[in-house]
C-alpha cells in the first residue's frame, strides 16, 4: 500500500489520521457559527513535545469551563497527539487540539446542551507568529488605540478561544500603519496581550507582565520561571499603557516562536533598535530549556524501514 504523505500536516478526526488538507468540520458546527470552541497549542521541537502536561492541563480546564463533554479522556487525547505527530513525521511542529460544541442534534436549536460536542487535533510544520527574520531584527508593534481587548467579563481570555474580532481589527490597523503586530489594552488602559502572544516589558530593572485579562500562557509561565532561575526581578501586575510605552525593553512570548524582542513601539525606538540584553538572555535560556528531561516528552516516530 502506498504511504500517504503527511509532511505538510495531518489531522486526527473521528478516529482517523488524515492529510491536513482533508480535515474539515460541518457548516452548522457551533465551533464555526458561534465560535463556541476551545483549543490549545503545544509545540514539538527537536522531536519532543515541550511541557505537554501543562498544555493538557490548561486544555482540560478550558473544556470544563465551557461545559463541553467530549468522548475522549485526557490520556486518550495525549495518545492521539503522539500518534498524529509520529504519523506526520514532523520533528518541529505546531500541534493544535480542539474541542467544539459541535452540530445541533435538533436542527436549528438554540440550546447549547443539544449539540454533539467533539474533539479533533491537527499538526503542521512549526509556526512562528512573528516570522524568524522579523524576530532577528526585533518586532515593530503598535499599541492599539481605538480597539480594546474584549472584556474578560464577556469572554474569559484564560479559555483559549477563537473570539479574535478585536485582535484582527487591531492587527489590520497595525499592518496598515507599517507595523508587524499589535498589543491591546483593556478598558482601564492596562496592557493585556496581542494576537497570539503574551507581552513582557522591562521597567526599572524588573521584568513585568500583565497579571489578568489575558491567556495564562505557558510560554509566559516559562519566562517567569526563567527569570526566577536567572535571578532577574520579575512581577505579574497591571501595566499602564504610558509606562509600557516608556519601557527599557519589550518582548512577546508564545508557543509559536518563544520569546521575541520588540525594537519599536509606536513611534519609539527601544535601545539601539536592536534586541535588548535581558530579552536575549531569556530567549536563549528558553530554547536551552528544550533539552531539560523534566520538560520534554519524546515522540516515538515509526520506523520507515
Ligand atoms: C491570545 C493569546 N495570548 C497568549 C498566547 C500565548 O500563550 P502560550 O504561551 O501558551 O502559547 C496565545 C497563544 O497562542 C494567544 O493566542
How many E strands? 15
Largest sheet: 8 strands, mixed
- The name of the CATH superfamily of the largest domain reads D-amino Acid Aminotransferase, subunit A, domain 2
- Integer-rounded radius of gyration: 20 Å
Q: Please report the number of helical segments.
A: 8
Order of SSEs: EEHEEHHEEHEHEEEHEHEEEHE
CATH topology of the largest domain: D-amino Acid Aminotransferase, Chain A, domain 2
Question: In total, how many domains does the architecture comprise?
Answer: 2
CATH architecture of the largest domain, by name, is: Alpha-Beta Barrel
Low-pLDDT stretches: none
Provide the helix percentage: 25-40%
Each distinct ligand: pyridoxal-5'-phosphate
CATH C-level class of the largest domain: Alpha Beta
How would you describe this structure to a colleague?
The protein is of the alpha+beta class. The chain has 2 domains: 10-125, 2-Layer Sandwich (D-amino Acid Aminotransferase, Chain A, domain 1); 132-291, D-amino Acid Aminotransferase, Chain A, domain 2 (Alpha-Beta Barrel), CATH 3.20.10.10. Helices cover 27% and strands 27% of the residues. It has helices at 30-33, 52-65, 74-88, 132-137, 165-176, 218-230, 241-245, 277-288, and strands at residues 10-13, 16-19, 37-45, 48-50, 93-104, 115-125, 139-143, 181-183, 198-203, 206-209, 234-236, 249-254, 258-265, 268-269, 296-298. Strands 7, 8, 9, 10, 11, 12, 13 and 14 form an 8-stranded mixed sheet that branches. A 7-stranded antiparallel sheet has the order 2-1-6-5-3-4-15. The protein starts with 9 loop residues before the first strand and ends in a 7-residue tail after the last strand. The structure holds pyridoxal-5'-phosphate (PLP). Pyridoxal-5'-phosphate binds next to helix 6 and strand 12. Pyridoxal-5'-phosphate is lined by residues 41, 193, 196-198, 214-215, 217-220, 253-255.
